[in-house]
Amino acid sequence: MQKTERSRIAILTTGGTIAGEGQSQTGGAYTSAKLGVQQLLEAVPELHDVADITGEEVVSIGSQDMSDEVWLTLAKRINAVLAQDDIDGIVITHGTDTMEETAWFLHLTVHSNKPVVLTGAMRPATARSADGPLNLYNAAVTAASPEAVDRGVMVVMNDTVFGARDVTKMHTSGVDTFQAPNFGPLGYVHDGIVTFQRRPEMHHTMTSEFDVSGLDKLPQVGIVFGYSNCSPLPVNAYVGAGYQGIVHAGLGNGNIHCDVLDALVNASRDGVRVVRSSRANSGSTTMAGEVDDEQYGFIASLHLNPQKARVLLQLALTKTTDRDAIQNYFLTY
Ligand SMILES: NC(=O)C[C@H](N)C(=O)O
Q: In terms of domain of life, where is this protein from (predicted)?
């Protein structure tokens, strides 16, 4: 696709290690979300070779503190900015801890085909070989590319472009922490050029039916982790607190310890929607395995990991509580 005019990119900042400051350049303790939007932009003057850039701070937090409220604020702000004729794409700087969840939430709630790219850093801005500046540059290159239109929300880290549905954080500290274990990346960025190899096939952005424009909170959905000798206490606590949904981070192909299974079946029969995901980092919780979802009224998360299954269940519950309809959402998005 040819493009002659200069792209116009809005950079929205939310904090994270990319805006982090430490006392040493070679590692150790640091605090995320310290630098403002101007400091982030000034660190990468080459951004202005890529596009006309505007910057705006949405929040300034470590992404471990991300909340449904911030997601709703972000989605509404992004929809408003992308509705402007004078903006071609958005870059969001974000902490890496929950970047995959925010990207996935936005993939389902932003209704535009313009590129939306999240990026961040594993090393604070003050570190030797800080990865943030090049990640920010590569994110802007991607957001400014006409080739990036209609690929949904993306994460650009470590020269790699990932789809929001596929990407997950796999390493606690490495700069190559983001991977897409089931489906691989969408493309790569090198020398100021983004090259794509595929586009997401499932519904998102323009074809997503989830609309959060009138919402100021989301349904409450909790995650329960499966392990040997585990207890039904967390399931019962969520049910007692009135949660509308529970995602079980199950064993292997979404399997569930017998004590916890009883608690989840009771929850499901009481109308709490239960999604069966897996603590394994790749593969699908398939619809026919050792657990009979139809019998218990459970929903298989398929390739969505627990933290992403939680997001889709929250959005599904804004539309329906019907088990079959929710399973269908997991087959569609
Ligand atoms: N690398 C990072 O950005 C980690 C940080 N705790 C955050 O998610 O905000």
A: Bacteria
* 188-231 per-position pLDDT tens digit: 999 999 999 999 999 999 999 999 999 999 999 999 999 999 99
Task: Give the distance from CA 145 to its chain's centroid.
Answer: 21
Q: Are 203 and 153 in contact (CB under 8 A)?
A: no
What's the CA-to-centroid distance between 138 and ligand 1, angstroms?
A: 19
- Bridging pattern class, strands 221-225 and 245-250: parallel
Catalytic residues: 17, 96
- The predicted-structure confidence for 72-109, as pLDDT tens digits, reads as follows 999 999 999 999 999 999 999 999 999 999 999 999 99
Q: Classify the complex by whether its ipTM is higher than 0.90, answering yes or no.
A: yes
Task: Say which DSSP state 302 is in.
Answer: B
Residue 204 in tokens? 């998102």
Neighbour count for residue 254 (Cβ, 10 Å): 29
Distance in Å, CA 30 to ligand 1 centroid = 11
> Which protein residues are within 6 Å of ligand 1, measured from CB?
16-17, 32, 62-64, 95-97, 120, 122
Spatial distance between the Cα atoms of 222 and 216, rounded to a whole number of angstroms? 19
Measured at the CA of 241, the angle between CA 235 and CA 244, to 5 degrees, comes to 75
